[in-house]
Automatic annotation (TrEMBL):
Pfam family for this entry, one: PseudoU_synth_2
GO biological process per UniProt: enzyme-directed rRNA pseudouridine synthesis
Biased composition annotated in UniProt, kind: Low complexity: 398-409
UniProt xrefs under InterPro entries: PsdUridine_synth_cat_dom_sf, PsdUridine_synth_RsuA/RluA, RluA_PseudoU_synthase
Organism of provenance: Ectocarpus siliculosus (Brown alga)
Protein name: Pseudouridine synthase RsuA/RluA-like domain-containing protein
Length: 505
């Protein structure tokens, strides 16, 4: 029998503690976070040898894969696959494998935690349970056939996001450099730098660790771990650095924190004006007025934002330097822009109705916040938001005659309608920084469907600017590459770079 409870828009299903067959004695719950299903399983508790006041019962045992299959409502093959993906975690409320019994105080604490975690299903055994004394870890790929310990907790992510690009790469060819301290890897687009919560295998750091150790995929042992000291978005390609031991990780992290690492990027921008060369500074924050945390559009640089509580406070500096921005004339760039335009048009058609509704709501809220009427035009709203900037001046000036346009102006106009190849140096390292800075400057990176809808917009301190309804889906790949990295190591300057991507040729 299944019972359902509603808690903060998350549907929780509790199975009866008296389940027949292989899962007899287990209890489980299913939570839904968005469209992703997570199953929580508690195996029957049994005392360790050093707890004499409880009896050790014998019962039919099920393997981890069988429990995942039964409570996750998936095939056994899928259960094995989820373990291999690193989508299953285990936590032992009572550890029966200690060589020596812990102190009496520790024994009592652990016993209490176990009893708390193994309440009856009617009392929802996982909600409100503190797993402070639980050793939660991701299961290794070869552990699907193991029997879980008594009193264990399993967390199963039934719908993990997959990254197929990681499985078709020859990762040995992605190693740019390795020494006894660190490894430099050319990460492909479409692959996360580090494991996600529901996929521990299809990522750059794990695959690179296998390649460095010379171990084939599917090995029944783990390679020596690598420690990520730099990261890129899933959709971004290029240079990342992994430390090979903790001391190297500590030193490299200190270099990044002190901004003593030079990071150069290449980006292909959609047709439009060139981004001015020189410093590019903005103010950013991930925490919105309502407290939610996710990237927002950037504000123009303002020292007051960084220093105080203006506009809700918690603003940070986002700074980079545009080294070069020139028209891209290569055939590969033209193909990339054409493909990007097709994707943009398809997305626009699919979202046209909802986008129009969202835009109307945004403009209405913005007009109300500025004290304007509901019928105000977008131009009036924009002018009022910028303190009058952009209003037409009646000073008697006239527009230049079209026939007086010079050849230089014509050439510049032609350049403004061309895609541009942009070289930038990143100084700070905020989430999605270059993508959001370029959007604030009025430019879009080819393929960046997430921020295409906010190109040219900047935060003006209004709640409406925290709205992310204009954001699109996160893309799998964009025309942005971490092309070069430079830092001091053991008294000398080291520089690592990768080949130009096809869209930059």
């Amino acid at each position: 029998m299944m019972t359902y409870h509603q808690h903060d828009a998350i549907t929780i299903a509790s199975s009866s503690a008296a389940v027949t067959g292989i899962a007899e004695g287990c209890s489980a719950e299913t939570t839904y976070q968005g469209e992703h299903r997570v199953v929580h399983i508690a195996t029957p508790g049994a005392p360790p040898p050093w707890l004499e006041d409880e009896e050790q019962g014998e019962e039919q045992r099920a393997t981890i894969a069988e429990l995942v299959s039964h409570f996750g409502a998936v095939s056994r093959e899928r259960g094995v696959e989820l373990v291999k993906f690193g989508s299953v975690y285990i936590g032992e409320v009572v550890d029966t494998n200690w060589r020596h019994p812990p102190s009496k105080e520790k024994q009592m604490t652990i016993a209490a935690a176990r009893k708390k975690a193994l309440k009856s299903a009617d009392q929802a055994p996982f909600r409100g349970t503190s797993f402070e004394h639980m050793r939660l870890r991701r299961l290794h790929p070869w552990e699907s056939g193991n029997f879980p310990p008594h009193g264990a907790y399993l967390r199963v992510h039934c719908d993990p996001r997959t990254f197929p690009a990681s499985q078709v790469m020859d990762w040995s060819k992605r190693i740019v450099h390795k020494n006894e301290d660190f490894v430099v890897v050319d990460k492909p687009a479409g692959v996360p730098t580090v494991p996600t919560i529901d996929n521990g295998v299809q990522n750059c750091v794990f695959q690179a660790s296998l390649a460095v150790a010379g171990m084939p995929p599917g090995s029944r042992s783990l390679p020596p771990p690598l420690h990520a000291v730099s990261r890129l978005d899933v959709c971004t390609s290029g240079i990342v650095v992994f430390a090979r031991h903790k001391e190297a990780a500590k030193q490299l992290n200190e270099l990044f924190r002190a901004r003593r690492v030079k990071k150069r990027y290449l980006a292909l921008l959609t047709p439009g004006p060139a981004v001015p060369t020189g410093s590019m500074a903005h103010c950013c924050r991930s925490k919105a007025f309502d407290g939610s945390r996710r990237p927002r559009i950037y504000a123009d640089f303002d020292e007051e934002l960084l220093a105080g509580d203006k506009w809700g406070g918690a603003w940070q500096e986002a700074r980079s330097t545009v080294l070069l921005c020139a028209p891209a004339t290569g055939s590969a760039s033209a193909v990339a822009v054409a493909e990007d335009r097709e994707r943009a048009e398809a997305a626009a058609r699919a979202l046209e109705e909802s986008a129009a509704g969202a835009a109307a709501r945004l403009e209405a809220e913005l007009a109300a916040g500025l004290g304007l009427g509901s019928g105000s035009s977008p131009e009036e709203i924009e002018a009022a938001a910028r303190g009058g900037e952009g209003r037409e001046e009646e000073d008697g000036s006239t527009a230049p005659d079209a026939e007086a346009t010079t050849a230089a102006e014509a050439a510049r106009e032609e350049g403004d309608h061309a895609p541009h190849l942009c070289a930038m140096e990143l100084e700070t390292g905020r989430t999605h920084q270059l993508r959001l800075q370029l959007a604030a400057m009025g430019s879009a990176i080819v393929g960046d469907t997430r921020y295409r809808g906010v190109v040219g917009r900047v935060h003006r301190g209004l709640r409406v600017d925290d709205d992310t309804s204009r954001f699109g889906q996160e893309p799998e790949a964009i025309a942005l590459q971490a092309a070069r990295i430079e830092f001091e190591w053991q008294g000398r300057t080291v520089v690592f770079s990768t080949d130009r991507p096809s869209w930059a040729l």
